[in-house]
Design brief:
This protein is an alpha/beta fold. α13 runs parallel beside α15. 44% of the residues lie in helices and 13% in strands. The N terminus is likely disordered. It has three domains: 119 residues, Tyrosyl-Transfer RNA Synthetase (Orthogonal Bundle), CATH 1.10.240.10; 208 residues, Rossmann fold (3-Layer(aba) Sandwich), CATH 3.40.50.620; 76 residues, RNA-binding S4 domain (Structural Genomics Hypothetical 15.5 Kd Protein In mrcA-pckA Intergenic Region, Chain A). The chain contains 19 helices and 13 strands.
């Protein structure tokens, strides 16, 4: 049995996304990044503060194609890239055509190595996603790069002579990702052990080609980030920088963006806009302002007002509605966001279910308990099949009490059938009470 929060459109739901700009109330970009909670670890903070406030620099973040889509953890990096670009700096979006063939060390076990064809296909998917978040026009236009371009032509001997000589095994063993695996039953292969060298080589190559002096990434990648800064210092005698963002967790300490092992993806075919919107809408009061700081371009003044709303009128969920609208519009566009809101309104009796497009309705029903049944099925049986009630007797009692609806039409009579209520799309929304929902797909 699943309860969901009605999306609705009460006070607090925006109608257009916030403009993408940095907050002028901060003296420097660095100050804003710190306030938004985006800096967990970095190289020299004072130098970085001056660097980001000065002449345009080139900086990068890498994304490995270990899946056909980016996810919410990657979105943190994409928005950080965009914030720095808005300050006039030049981003490089790196997709790891070579590192994706290897994979960085996971905490517990070796990665499954994907085929070259699969990785190449996923490179294309990720590139198209990254392009949606950066500007590729103007004096500080973004540029896409693929580390396979400089890794593939390099022989093993050249790799060892030109790059491997700068790395000390003792230092590599101390990296958190490596040491965790060494102390596990699974151990670590040389393949994953070498990942930090490949990522360090990426930074060196981008420094040489584009004058890149800053790399960003998650704090769990800090060992890989510093592999690059150390390599450039040894090979070129230059100082460059790295920023590690915090791993986003909920106030109860659970990993953000995970529900029973399912990632929240940026690809609409893997996580529908409706499911994406509902994910953000269901954010806990204790977490919502922190999420707004990281994932939206709302100003400090706007967020202070929403923080006050959470404290004084939490039942309105204005902050959650704003968060859900802003991030869904950013990732999937305003039209898809409005369709997701309309679907939620209709499911909970505040709109016309028949007016929803079939794909949006299907996406919504897939997120609910659901069943596939013939049109001739009694409504009472559907209540049992979807586990909205425990038995047929309980189902008939719920219908007799007037608390059962199909497509927001009250069911009259315990012997009522599904057939008169089936939509042209061959779907139906079953509701018990005000907010307990299930989906029906008609055979």
């Amino acid at each position: 049995m699943t309860d969901q929060t009605s999306a609705g459109t009460p006070t607090g739901t925006p109608t257009a996304p916030a403009p993408q700009r940095n907050d002028s109330s901060f003296d420097t970009l660095w100050d804003e990044l710190v306030w938004r909670g985006l800096i967990h670890v970095s190289t020299d903070a004072d130098e970085l503060k001056m660097l980001l406030a000065g002449e345009p620099i080139t900086y990068y973040c890498g994304f490995d194609p270990t899946a056909p889509s980016l996810h919410l953890g990657n979105l943190v990096q994409l928005l950080l890239l965009r914030r720095i670009q808005l300050a006039g700096h030049k981003p490089l979006g790196l997709v790891g055509g070579s590192t994706g063939l290897v994979g960085d060390p996971r905490p517990t076990a070796e990665r499954t190595l994907n085929t070259r064809e699969t990785v190449a296909e996923w490179v294309g998917y990720l590139e198209s996603q990254i392009r949606r978040f950066l500007s590729f026009e103007g004096d500080n236009a973004a540029r896409m790069v693929n580390n396979l371009d400089w890794t593939a032509p390099l022989s093993a001997i050249d790799f060892l002579r030109e790059i491997g000589k700068y790395f000390r095994v003792g230092t590599m063993l101390k990296k958190d990702a490596v040491s965790a695996r060494l102390n596990s039953d699974a151990g670590i292969s040389y393949t994953e052990f070498s990942y930090q060298i490949l990522q360090g080589m990426d930074f060196l190559e981008l420094y040489r080609q584009y004058g890149c002096v800053l790399q960003t990434g998650g704090s769990d990648q800090w060992g890989n980030l510093t592999s690059g800064t150390d390599l450039i210092h040894k090979a070129e005698g230059a100082s460059v920088h790295a920023i590690g963002t915090p791993l986003i967790t909920n106030s109860d300490g659970t990993k953000f963006g995970k529900s029973e092992g399912n990632a929240v993806w940026l690809d609409a075919t893997m996580t529908s806009p409706y499911a994406f919107y509902q994910f953000w809408l269901n954010t806990d009061d204790a977490d919502v302002i922190d999420r707004l700081k990281v994932f939206t371009f709302l100003t400090r003044t706007e967020l202070d007002a929403l923080s006050e709303a959470v404290a004084t009128e939490p039942f309105r969920r204005a902050a959650q509605r704003t968060l859900a609208f802003e991030v869904t519009a950013l990732v999937h566009g305003v039209d898809a966001t409005n369709a997701a809101i309309a679907a939620a309104e209709a499911l909970f009796g505040q709109g016309d279910i028949a007016a929803l497009d079939a794909s949006t309705l299907e996406s919504a029903l897939r997120e609910l308990p659901n069943t596939t049944s013939p049109a001739s099925t009694p409504v009472a049986q559907l209540l049992v099949d979807t586990e909205l009630v425990a038995s047929l007797s309980a189902a008939r009692r719920a219908i007799d009490e007037g608390g059962v609806y199909i497509n927001n039409v009250k069911i009259e009579g315990a012997d009522a059938l599904l057939e008169p209520h089936v939509l042209p799309s061959r779907m139906a929304v079953l509701r018990r009470g005000k907010k307990t929902l299930a989906g029906v797909f008609v055979e």
